[in-house]
Amino acid sequence: MFEKVLVANRGEIAIRVMRALEEMGIASVGVYSEADREAPHVHEADEAFLLGPAVPAESYLKVEKILETAQRAGAAAIHPGYGFLAENPRFADACEQAGIAFIGPPASAIEAMGSKTRAREIMKKAGVPIVPGATEPSADLAAARETAAEIGYPVACKAAGGGGGKGFRVAQTEEELAEAFEGAAREGEKFFSDDRVYLERYLDDPRHVEVQVLADSHGNVIHLGERDCSIQRRHQKLIEEAPGPHVDAEMRERIGTIATEAARAVDYRSAGTVEGMQVGAEYFFLEMNTRVQVEHCVTEMVTGIDIVREQVRIAAGEPLSIGQDEVELRGHAIECRINAEAAHKNFAPAPGRIDHYIEPAGPGVRVDSGLRAGSEVTPLYDPMVAKLITWDVDRERATARMLRALAEYEIAPLTTLIPFHRAILTTEQWANGETCRDLTEDRKWLKSLAPDTPAPAAEEDGGSTERVFAVEVDGRLHNVKVIGAPNPTGGVAAGRRRPPRRERSGGGRGGGGRGPTLVSPLQGSVFKVVAEQGADVEEGALICVIEAMKMENEITAHRAGKITELKVSEGAAINAGDPIATIE
Q: Where are the domains of the chain?
């Protein structure tokens, strides 16, 4: 077994891996960028090394620097977590060339499954059902039009090297194909250095069901049941659960066989996930993720198997610690991704500082987090900052436990998806096990999740302010709201709990209320400017696209009128609250 392992990642997954290593008696080596000097994962590691500047390309994606650090620290292996270099075959191969074990699958398996078109071709030859569509990228838009005509609309345009919802665009009609194809190519180049795009049939409201597999170097390949990840926004997961609410024993056995056959087809080793689309009783292979998944936690909760521990054992040449006949699913688990996003602003990224932080606890509650009070969530990295997982004997009770835990979770003043999760888990759609797309794509419903506007701050002339006091009456504690003169001491009123600071309501996706100035709701960089100065626009017309936290965010006109001033340019940095345009 390894004596020391470098964890080539950050945030909650780095801490998750380091905890497993500590339990196995293995020393951990952390790495960090200049922006992460004070990040919790740095302090969790037994030792930590600076990689470079905050930009991922100069730190967490710097292969040579990571290998140099591993050799300097004397690490015998590297665990990549997920994201960054986790599915980079060149990195896996570089580790092998440097004599360092890669805690993941062989480079050949990553390469085979990393290209979605090649993976589809391999699965088709292996007899695994695939979503109808192409097994080769379209050479250009003209070729894509021919393929789309053969498949039939709607079609999904997907980056050949994509994953995690990146490089995925839908064209409902031929008129929408050019924009979808070019958008998928652009994101593929940006996130995966691969602008190739292939087309497949877009299935209307399918369930996203995936199977966890484990494979060692001794010929053992098993599956740990399925996870349902159907609740998504922009084709990126928000809530996951295990087992799937619409998967019976017969389907579980069938898709488990599909997953293990897919793993054997590429001589897989390590933990991996076979993703698929469930349409009624049908199941189609979608792709294979050659890494530990964000949502691996729900599988761990219902099986009792530590997936990260198995990864380390497999990389060390040891056999799986469990056989297929020993895998048993018990109870139900749910995971809510705690993203720094404003659901009421169509899931706009919401980076910022955390001053107040309390995690929920109690029976059946697990928190995988990269946060603490004082942490700064920057726009440079993924918006997911923590994961909240609950377990109970069935789905209904696991939901009740999740709602209790969400109510306990305090993160302030950072805007997160906690209000969204609390709202959606109380809906009839969730209770029925639906995909909830009618809610996640409903702008009006999302806007209803906007936080309450706080009372105005007191003015220097003695204006009123709102305070909350904890008052005990006949031995019972009551929270009492008082609106009146400011606290003469200038402090916060005494109470059982400090009221969380709330974000002011912006009044629309672009912010700025209904006045003439359209302001940026987030910090990032201007990726694209669509509107022109002097043009007449309707309310909701696209003005520009801002890139932040690995997502492209469309900023639309908050009112109809003429653009008298356009204050943004492509490639420029922009802060939340900066003016974008004046529409009069």
A: 4-103, 132-201, 207-447, 517-583
The yes-or-no verdict on residue 477 having pLDDT over 50 is yes
Q: What is the CA radius of gyration of the chain?
A: 25
What string of DSSP letters covers 414-457?
Answer: S--SHHHHHHHTTSHHHHTT---HHHHT-HHHHHTTPPPPPPPP
E strand spans, 98-220 = 101-102, 155-163, 166-171, 197-201, 207-215
Range list of H helices, 126-219? 141-151, 177-192
pLDDT at 507: 35
C-alpha 12/C-alpha 402 separation (Å) is: 19
In this structure, the number of other CB atoms found within 10 A of the CB of residue 26 comes to 20
Tell me: pLDDT of 497 over 60. Answer: no
Find, among 102, 82, 83, the residue nearest to 92 by Cα.
Answer: 102
Residue 142: Cβ within 10 Å count:
8
- What's the CATH number of domain 4-103, 3.40.1000.20, 3.40.50.20, 3.40.50.300, 3.30.450.20? 3.40.50.20
Tokens 């993941």: give the residue: 104
Question: Which 3 state secondary structure label does DSSP give 573?
Answer: strand
d(CA 541, CA 297): 41
Residues in the chain, total: 584
Maximum pairwise Cα distance, the chain = 78
- Is pLDDT at 107 greater than 80 in this prediction? yes
CB 298 within 8 A of CB 245: no
At residue 125, the pLDDT reads 81
How far apart are the C-alpha atoms of 50 and 174, rounded to whole Å? 49
Residues 517-583, CATH architecture? Beta Barrel (2.40)
The reported pTM is 0.80
Q: How far apart are CA 480 and CA 81, in angstroms?
A: 47
pLDDT band at 509; cut points 50, 70, 90: very low
Of 169, 189, 187, the C-alpha closest to 179 is 169
Between residues 188 and 347, which one has the greater pLDDT?
347
Is CATH 1.10.10.10 what the domain over 132-201 is classified as, yes or no? no
Q: What is the mean pLDDT of residues 90-110?
A: 96
Residue 424 contacts residue 347 (beta carbons within 8 Å): no
3-state secondary structure of 531: coil
**CATH says 207-447 is which class?**
alpha beta
* Buried/exposed code over 163-175 (b: 16+ C-beta within 10 A; e: otherwise): bbebbbbbbeeee
